[in-house]
Amino acid sequence: MTKLVIGRFPLPPSDNRLYRNVPGIGRVKTKEYKAYAKAVEEWAYFNARSLSPIRRLAADAKLVYLEVLFLIHHPRLFTQALRPKRLDTTNRLKALCDMLAKILEVDDSKFWTVWCSKLPVEGVEDEGVAIRLSEAQSDGRAGFPNSA
């Protein structure tokens, strides 16, 4: 099974910061979400060559399995006493999947299984997301052979 990796993808904002309600208009994208979208587009531009095989995999696969590793600055994850802080990375998946689907030119409904984890990094400049994509099994089990 082919697995392809996207490294140092921009870190998405929390779902809580994607939209705001504007009286008389409704929900609109926040400046933070627009800035993230621009950062992803710039990332895609500078990584266009490495995106080609990933786009092919995503286009050819019936279903895609994503492994997402959030690289977060250590002090944002742990207190000085090394107790975990409350940082919900799963609420960053919506923006990540939406923008990933956009640059891969597929519908995000192809992202059948999304696994995520956190990894502390030393500097703020090291924050980002590492993503591994592979084709999920056609029956939707996405790499879990004993699932029913």
**Mean pLDDT value:** 88
Radius of gyration, whole Å = 16 Å
CATH level 4 superfamily = Holliday junction resolvase RusA
**For this structure, what is the CATH class?**
Alpha Beta
Based on the coordinates given, report the CATH architecture.
2-Layer Sandwich
Number of strands: 6
- Write down the domain tally: 1
Describe this structure in words.
With 148 residues, the protein is of the alpha+beta class. The chain has a single domain (3-135), classed as 2-Layer Sandwich (60s Ribosomal Protein L30, Chain: A), CATH 3.30.1330. It is built from four helices and six strands, in the order E-E-E-H-H-E-H-H-E-E. The protein has helices at residues 31-46, 48-60, 74-77, 93-104; strands at 3-9, 19-22, 26-29, 64-73, 111-121, 128-135. Strand 2 and strand 3 form a beta hairpin. The longest helix is centred in the first third of the chain and has 16 residues, at 31-46. The two termini are 20 Å apart.
Write the layout of secondary structure elements.
Elements (H helix, E strand, L loop, with lengths): L2 E7 L9 E4 L3 E4 L1 H16 L1 H13 L3 E10 H4 L15 H12 L6 E11 L6 E8 L13
Parallel strand pairs: 4-5
Antiparallel strand pairs: 1-6, 2-3, 4-6
Helix pairs in contact: 1-4
